[in-house]
Amino acid sequence: MMKIDRTGQKFGKLTVIADSGNAQLLCRCDCGVEELLPRGITKPSYKGRKMCSYCKGGVCEVCGKRIKYNSGQIPATCSDACAKARNNEREKLRYQAVKNTEAYKNTRSSYLSKLRERLNSDPVLYAAFRERAKSYLKKSRSKPEQIEKAKFIAKARWQRIKNDDALYETSVLYARKQYDNYSDDDYKRIFNRERSHTRARKSRSCLE
Ligand SMILES: [Zn+2]
Ligand SMILES: [Zn+2]
Questions:
Q1: Which ligand is nearest to the CA of 78?
Q2: Residue 64 CA to ligand 1 centre (angstroms)
Q3: For residue 118, what are the contacts with CB-CB under 8 A and spacing of at least 6?
Q4: 83 Cβ contact list (under 8 Å, min separation 6)
Q5: Fewer CB within 10 Å: C terminus or N terminus of the chain?
Q6: In a domain, 26, yes or no
Q7: Which residues surround ligand 2, an ion (CB under 5 A)?
Q8: CA of 154 to the centre of ligand 2 (A)
């Protein structure tokens, strides 16, 4: 059976740009992406997507990159790294939501007092606990992938703050308060340089 040449025809966001008579048509989406789609899109009964896989996939909730849709449910994020960052963020939000509830406070304070009791009554355990905490901190600070991960999460977070005026405003006020609260010694320890008072004043007046 002769197939109709579909070149130039439009289906949803897709325009057929090449029809070689095969089962697939080369289409260009309104967004500019070119992809092969089944000839079935020409049928009125076609229920599948009439847009490219990126328009279908939407954007990553974490980094904002377009997601290439494959099949099934549309994922919220573009990669394993973004999925992890999103989970961490959600876990943080969950913690923020429960941390001031009585139930959480009670559970936590009873856990901490039990732990403190045990550590105080057992010097060997106390020493081991200190050692472990110290080595954990040292280890996580020396692992390049941990540092990369922290940078990645910070970057994604900053991206989100930057795109939200209210959030940005809050974070600027918060940061300013933090800087003001640092003693000169703290400042030197954190930023590895002396605090420049003139500069601090200058940047503050810019924000006001
Ligand atoms: Zn598209
Ligand atoms: Zn992403």
A1: 2
A2: 15
A3: 125
A4: 75, 76, 77
A5: N
A6: yes
A7: 60, 62-63, 65, 78, 82
A8: 13
Give the domain range for residue 21.
Answer: 10-57
Domain presence at residue 14: yes
Ligand 1 centroid – CA 161 distance (Å): 27
* pLDDT band for position 12 (cuts 50, 70, 90): very high
Q: What's the mean per-residue pLDDT of the chain?
A: 89
Q: Cα of 64 to ligand 2 centre, how many Å?
A: 6
Q: How far is CA 113 from CA 47, 120, 124, in A?
A: 61, 10, 18
Q: How far is the CA of 136 from the centre of ligand 2 (A)?
A: 29
Beta bridge pairs of residue 28 = 15, 34
- Starting from the CA of residue 14, give the closest ligand: 1
Q: What is the pLDDT of residues 147-205, one digit of tens each?
A: 888 889 899 989 989 999 999 999 999 888 888 888 888 888 888 888 876 555 555 54
What value does the mean pLDDT take over residues 110-128?
A: 94
CB contact at 8 A, 14 and 4: no
Residue 198: predicted pLDDT: 54
Alpha carbons 152 and 143: distance in angstroms, whole number = 14
Cα dihedral 135, 85, 177, 179, rounded to 10, equals 50
Ligand 2 centroid to residue 60 C-alpha, Å = 5
68 neighbors 77 (Cβ within 8 angstroms): no
Q: Answer yes or no: is 29 within a domain.
A: yes
Residue 115 lies in a domain: no
